[in-house]
Amino acid sequence: MKIDELTPRTGRISMPVKILSLEEPRAMDNGTVICEGLVGDETGTVIMSFWNDECETVKDGMTISLKDARANLVRGHMRISLGTVSYTHLRAHETEAD
């Protein structure tokens, strides 16, 4: 699957994406930490939400492999997020220069 194939209700997304930029993590009222980033492949980009420990793990320029993620429409913009059974595989050896 590629970014340009996503629709707002796409589930079970499994594909590699590169993290192009990340916002600073922020704490929500319930203690949850969230950071959002722009991820993409050769076909396009989409916003992705990272939660709690994921915020400390992901870095700009890193390529991650999504497994069973989902796409949603939030305030008119498509976003990818991980569900309770989805995960990422980080390829930390890749940098922005790759």
Task: Describe this entry's structure for a reader.
The structure is a single chain. By secondary structure, the chain is mainly β. The chain is 5% helix and 57% strand. The protein has one helix and six strands. It has one helix spanning 53-57, and strands spanning 13-22, 26-27, 33-41, 44-51, 63-74, 77-91. The chain has a five-stranded mixed beta barrel with strand order 1-3-4-6-5. The radius of gyration is 13 Å and the shape is globular. 15% of the residues are buried. Residues 92-98 have low confidence and may be disordered.
In short:
The chain is mainly β and 98 residues long. The chain is built from one helix and six strands; from the N terminus they run ββββαββ.
Number of helices: 1
Shape: globular
Largest sheet: 5 strands, mixed, barrel
Strand elements, count: 6
* Model regions low in confidence, pLDDT < 50 over at least 5 residues: 92-98
What Rg, in angstroms, do the CA atoms define?
13 Å
Walk across the major sheet and give the strand order: 1-3-4-6-5
Order of helices and strands: EEEEHEE
